[in-house]
């Protein structure tokens, strides 16, 4: 059983604050790490697909880093806005499988 | 592009009845569709993988006779919860792989409540 952990479980910040959360995953047989943004009643939206150790990806105010040797990825949001409020999911793709293993997500609430 | 439409978004049914959930790929052909279930405060758990034109592959502990999956066309996969019980109440969501091993797109999910 593959174990993907996300922390914190939830986070409440003020508009303008920068924040970050963690996804940890098995360091062996790594293939890819996905980040999704999931708003209530909508489909999870793909943010990043990360494959290379040391990779850093950016999309607007959101960025992510990847350390496959130690098995973690960080997601950063700079200058949080209320519209960033959502659950952020990470999902691990093992080299032996074609299915994603998800963490429980980090629920972010940004207050105006 | 790569949109998956899932219906219904919520359903309430009586114990013992069956419920069908549909996922359609709107602008691409989904040869493989994944079905997940999520209980409160838990992660999305893979139930089964369906491939167009063949039998679905179920994860350990998922009853294939209870959760019937049909993937008869490249744009439609259905999950039927048969003889539903209150413990089947959960959030069900489908996903399709649309480009290589990296591109996964999701439906918006179905909240099933069995009373």
| Cα Rg of chain B | 13 Å
Q: Which spans of chain B of ≥5 residues are poorly predicted at pLDDT below 50? A: none
Which class do the helix and strand fractions of chain A yield? mainly beta
- Total helix count of chain B? 0
Major beta sheet summary of chain B: 7 strands, mixed
Q: What coarse outline of chain A follows from CA principal-axis ratios?
A: globular
> Helix share of residues of chain B?
under 10%
Strand content of chain A: over 45%
Stretches with pLDDT under 50, minimum 5 residues of chain A: none
Order of helices and strands of chain A: EEEEEEEEEEE
How would you classify the quaternary structure? heterodimer
Describe the structure.
- The complex is a heterodimer of chains A (112) and B (115).
- In chain A, strands 2, 4, 5, 9, 10 and 11 form a 6-stranded mixed β-sheet that branches. A 5-stranded antiparallel β-sheet of chain A has the order 1-3-8-7-6, with no helix packed on it.
- The model of chain A has no long low-confidence stretch (mean pLDDT 94).
- The N and C termini of chain A lie far apart (40 Å).
- Chain A contains no helices and 11 strands.
- In chain A, 0% of the residues lie in helices and 56% in strands.
- Chain A has 112 residues and is mainly β.
- Chain A has strands at 5-7, 10-14, 19-24, 30-38, 45-50, 56-59, 62-67, 72-77, 86-94, 100-102, 106-111.
- In chain A, 37% of the residues are buried.
- Chain B is mainly β.
- Helix content of chain B is 0%, strand content 55%.
- In chain B, the strands form 2 sheets. In chain B, strands 2, 4, 5, 6, 9, 10 and 11 form a 7-stranded mixed β-sheet that branches. A 4-stranded antiparallel β-sheet of chain B has the order 1-3-8-7, with no helix packed on it.
- In chain B, a hairpin with a 2-residue loop joins β7 (67-73) and β8.
């Amino acid at each position: 059983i593959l174990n993907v952990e996300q922390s914190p479980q939830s986070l409440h910040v003020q508009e303008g604050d920068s924040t970050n959360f963690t996804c940890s995953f098995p360091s062996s047989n790594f293939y890819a790490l996905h980040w999704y943004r999931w708003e209530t009643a909508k489909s999870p939206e793909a943010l990043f697909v990360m494959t290379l150790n040391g990779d850093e990806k950016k999309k607007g105010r959101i960025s992510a880093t990847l350390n496959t040797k130690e098995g973690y990825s960080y997601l950063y949001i700079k200058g949080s806005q209320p519209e960033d409020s959502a659950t952020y999911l990470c999902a691990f793709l093992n080299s032996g499988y074609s299915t994603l293993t998800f963490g429980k997500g980090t629920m972010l609430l940004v207050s105006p | 592009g790569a949109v998956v439409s899932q219906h219904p978004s919520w359903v309430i049914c009586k114990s013992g009845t069956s419920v069908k959930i549909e996922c359609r790929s709107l602008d691409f052909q989904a040869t493989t569709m994944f079905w997940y279930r999520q209980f409160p405060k838990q992660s999305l758990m893979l139930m089964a993988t369906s491939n167009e034109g063949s039998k679905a592959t179920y994860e350990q502990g998922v009853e294939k006779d209870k959760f019937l999956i049909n993937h008869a066309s490249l744009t439609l996969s259905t999950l039927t919860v048969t003889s539903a019980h209150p413990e089947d109440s959960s959030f069900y969501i489908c996903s399709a792989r649309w480009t290589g091993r990296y591109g996964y797109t999701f439906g918006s999910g179905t909240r099933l409540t069995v009373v």
